[in-house]
Structures are given as structure tokens and as C-alpha cells.
Amino acid sequence: MTTTTQGPSTRHHAIAARGLRKAYGDKQVLDGVDLHVPQGTVFSLLGPNGAGKTTAVKILSTLIRADEGDVHVGGYDLAADPQAVRGSIGVTGQFSAVDGLITGAENMLLMADLQHLSKAEGRRVTAELLERFDLTEAAHKPASTYSGGMKRRLDIAMTLVGDPRIIFLDEPTTGLDPRSRHNMWQIIRELVGGGVTVFLTTQYLEEADELADRIAVLNGGKIVAEGTADELKRLIPGGHVRLRFTNPVDYQAAAVALREANRDDEALALQIPSDGSQRELRSILDWLDSAGVQADEFTVHTPDLDDVFFALTASSTATQKETVR
């Protein structure tokens, strides 16, 4: 891996990677990936199965080495000082690291020992985190008796024993029921509210839409799009504004003026192509006001992240389908 000194672009980023490459044999898993994750935010990496999401997490969390790339995590050069990086991060994989043969409290104390905390400090941190994650009542029961949601909460609690400022969550809600998934979302929001940076990979697009400040889509070893959820949705055609009228006179006036709109004369509704941007919406509202036309319903329809994902990863999806056949 190539290294450079830390530059200005890394100072305000919890994670900064440039030109990240990793191959296994002749398969190029990551092919020049750039990532910039601001401190105290949720950054979500999306991509089809086999896109390299877990490989990226393993590299950034020092579990494997990249073939090429300049990476800083927590302000530390990943190649030159991996031990310092390990001291600033926590990792929760898609498969639980909880030992089911011992109790929740014992799992926590074991992690405290691994973090070289004193016995007293380990007990204090364990008690605080078990209470924070609503696990105090179950603390002295074998972890094998915990529900999936409880094990996930314990998993993240164990990750926080060393007070990391950057946490990698690799598909943290896989296999959880909807209630447990929403509880986990609240935990993630609270962590970020406390200044923690979360690097999230997930197979649930709703989860990225709900949590992420920024989203990157990985496909074919490259980042094919990056932005906020709203910015990514505007990349895909099909967005529109729908105006519905109860007054036929207003409807006809609007239909004549807004000639690009698709008409629904039966419903007295117009559908206007729009990317959903504030500028476009304000333009439509300003025209309605100036013309004295009253729309009884004004709704904005934009593509969701499912649409974005399928559009940006269509080639991979097609390849997977061919493979299945």
C-alpha cells in the first residue's frame, strides 16, 4: 500500500481513502475507490452481493491490507500506524461476536480485559453500557438465551467498551425483526448524536435512506454514485409533481399553461415532470400564485433508493440473473 502524509482533506474526515484497490487473483474487487466520511456522520456503502462492501470494511478496519491506496482513519495513516487506527475504531460484523456460553456481563468484561481496562474501570463501563442498551436485567443470563435484537445490542455494547469514535457496522440488522431493526436505528442515531462516526453497510435500502447522511453505491469495484439520499434519487428519471383540482376552470387554466404536464381529465389532475428540487417546486408554486389558480392537492413523487440501486447496479443484477440460470 502506498502512503502519504496527512493532508488538509483528511483533517475533518473520520475516514479518507484515495485510490483503494484490492484483487483476489484476477478478480479486481476494489478498483480505485475514493471515500471521504465526515466526522460525526453516518456514511452508508451500498452495493450488490459481491460488490466489495465487506472487503472495504475489512481494509479500513485493518483486518486485511489493500493492494494500493492512501488511507487515513481517525487521523492516522492506515499503513504507517495500524495500531493507532485499531485504538480509535470499533467493528460490528454481520455475524455476532457474542459468546453464547457466557453471560452478557461476562462478554462485556472479557472485552474490557481485551481493551486493557482495569478491573474497576471494566466493571464501571460494563454496568453503564448494559444499562444504556437495556440489558441490565439479562446481564447475568447466558447470551445464548438472548433474542436476536438483544444479541445485536450486546454486540454493539461490546464494541463501545473502548470508547471508539469510529464504528464500522457491517449489515448490523440482518435477520432482525422490524421492531428490533427500528430499535437499532435509534441506537445508531444516539451514537452519532454523541459525536461517533458510523460507517454502515446494509442490504436494506430503507435503512440507508433512514440513517445515512451520505450514501455511496459500489458496483464493479468502483463508486458509481455518491450523495445524500435525496441527491441520489434525483439522478433517476421518473420524478414528478402531481396537482389535483376540484374546480374545472382552474384545472383547464393550469393544463393550458403547463403544457409539458400529463393530463388526467377524469381526475382533474396534472402530472409535471420534476426532479423534486426546491427550485422547481418553488417555480410551480409561484406560477400557481401569480395565476390565481388553486390546486387542492400538491404531491411530490420521487424515485426511491430501490429505483436508484437497481438503475446504478443493473449490469451486476443482470449478471447475477444469468449466473442463476
SS content category: alpha/beta
Straight-line N-to-C gap: 39 Å
Estimated radius of gyration: 24 Å
| Percent of residues in beta strands | 15-25%
The helicity comes to 25-40%
Please list the strands of the largest sheet in the order they lie side by side. Answer: 6-7-8-3-9-10
Number of helices: 13
Number of strands: 14
In round numbers, the mean pLDDT is: 87
Q: Main sheet, how many strands, which sense, barrel?
A: 6 strands, mixed
Overall geometry: elongated
- Which blocks of ≥5 consecutive residues have pLDDT under 50? 1-9, 317-325
Order of helices and strands: HEEEHEEHEHHHEHEHEEHEHEEHEHH
Structure characterization notes:
The chain is of the alpha/beta class and 325 residues long. Helix content is 39%, strand content 25%. The chain has 13 helices and 14 strands. The chain has helices at 8-11, 53-60, 82-88, 104-114, 119-132, 148-159, 178-193, 205-211, 229-233, 248-257, 278-291, 305-312, 314-324, and strands at 13-24, 27-38, 42-46, 68-73, 76-77, 89-92, 166-170, 197-201, 214-219, 222-227, 240-244, 262-264, 269-273, 297-301. The strands form three sheets. It has a six-stranded mixed β-sheet, sandwiched between helices. It has a four-stranded antiparallel β-sheet with strand order 2-1-4-5. A four-stranded antiparallel β-sheet has the order 12-13-11-14, covered by helices on one side. Strand 4 (68-73) and strand 5 form a beta hairpin. Helix 4 runs parallel beside helix 6 (148-159). The protein is elongated. It starts with 7 loop residues before the first helix and ends with a helix. Mean pLDDT is 87; it is low at 1-9 and 317-325.
